[in-house]
Amino acid sequence: MRSFLCEISMKIENPNPIQWQFSERASQLQSSAIREILKITQRPEIISFAGGLPSPLTFPVERMKAAYDKVLSETGKQALQYGPTDGYAPLREWIAGYLSTPDCKIVPEQILMVSGSQQALDLLGKVLIDEGSKVLVETPSYLGALQAFSVYRPEFHSVETDDHGLVPSSIEGLAEGARLLYSLPNFQNPTGRSLSIERRRELVETCARLGLPLIEDDPYGALSYKGEPMPRMLNMNPDGVIYMGSFSKVLTPGIRLGYVCAPLPLVRRLELAKQAADLHTATLTQMVVHEVVKDGFLNEHIPTIRTLYANQCQAMLDAMEEQFPAGVTWTRPEGGMFIWVELPKQIDATKLLDQAIAARVAFVPGAPFYANDPDTHTLRLSFVTVPPERIREGIAILGKLIKEQM
Ligand SMILES: Cc1ncc(COP(=O)(O)O)c(C=O)c1O
């Protein structure tokens, strides 16, 4: 039976339409260049080297399904309830064990679960950055971090990098008054470069001497093609390093689960900031991920991801060797998801992208990855979601376009 109320319209008129007055902060928000490009590159005819998405072939769907089933049937009431802000205790314990080394024990109190490590960047910005604060970043750096920190209006200072990543000695003259240094030591997004062990030590020592908080963002560290992860800077100085980890690249990004390991005074502040943002990360997700990882599943799963990515990376490097003209240089990553290309200086990668898309190939121009003074002749290629034959086809098209510009 239809309710009588349904027949009376409850809608009111708007005689005075709202003139939205956004906060200064909101007015300055900008969409990430990558997200914009992704909208175009989702067209199936495009060979896209643009995305930073992990390969869906690696998602452990059956394993996750079984874990959801188990958690919901055995502990459904807890899984569907609100939970603590710092996260699901057994998962925090598992992470603390995973991050511990024989001479550096990490305790669960240092761990805060977050809704993707991207949230950690926002929370860190919220608790560490004031308007005009000095923030040190690599040149280039992860675009999503620049975007997250920008909301808090810092003054970015670019730290020098070379073929071996960040140059530790270059922070000496920059550190005075800086709130933090944001670093990506493993298979950096966007360059694919890694920091050597010697540089890690030097960086940690320099930051400790200068009293500079060092953020170690590490979503790709486990994806070392040789299978030998490099030592974490966290374990060299857990009192001065803020470590960010993620399940996005080793399980699946759709679950939005990451974590921060930070010194206790900071982790408490981050927890308060998270409480205000979203109360806590989904209980069900955390319980499911704990169910998946607790008995060593990652030890068998991660090697399958490494093998897939290593093959596709090699296919791309071989194709570039064949198709790219002299004068173009690129990185040779030993893990992770990205290759960084430097074109001859006169070629603007953003203009090249327009031609590439018309020829059905996409990549991300390098400029948005720079906090200051972009190198417009750079670009980022991702090989993880494209099978080898399509990689060869796409690189041949790109090589032809580059040659035409030279
Ligand atoms: C360097 C880096 N940090 C953080 C993130 C965010 O990852 P998530 O929020 O999925 O954990 C990404 C995603 O691509 C990344 O490349």
Protein described:
The protein has 406 residues and is of the alpha/beta class. It folds into two domains: 30-59 and 299-405, Aspartate Aminotransferase, domain 1 (Alpha-Beta Complex); 83-295, Aspartate Aminotransferase, domain 2. Helix content is 39%, strand content 14%. It has helices at residues 24-28, 33-41, 61-79, 89-99, 117-128, 143-150, 197-210, 264-278, 283-293, 297-323, 349-358, 388-405, and strands at residues 47-48, 111-114, 134-138, 155-159, 161-162, 165-166, 178-183, 214-217, 241-246, 258-261, 329-330, 338-342, 361-362, 364-365, 378-382. The strands form four sheets. A seven-stranded mixed beta sheet has the order 2-10-9-8-7-3-4, sandwiched between helices. Strands 11-12-15-14 form a four-stranded antiparallel beta sheet. Helix 6 (143-150) links the parallel strand 3 (134-138) and strand 4 (155-159). Helix 3 packs across helix 9. The radius of gyration is 23 Å and the shape is globular. The termini are far apart. Pyridoxal-5'-phosphate is lined by residues 52, 116-118, 142, 144, 184, 189, 217, 219, 246, 248, 253, 258.
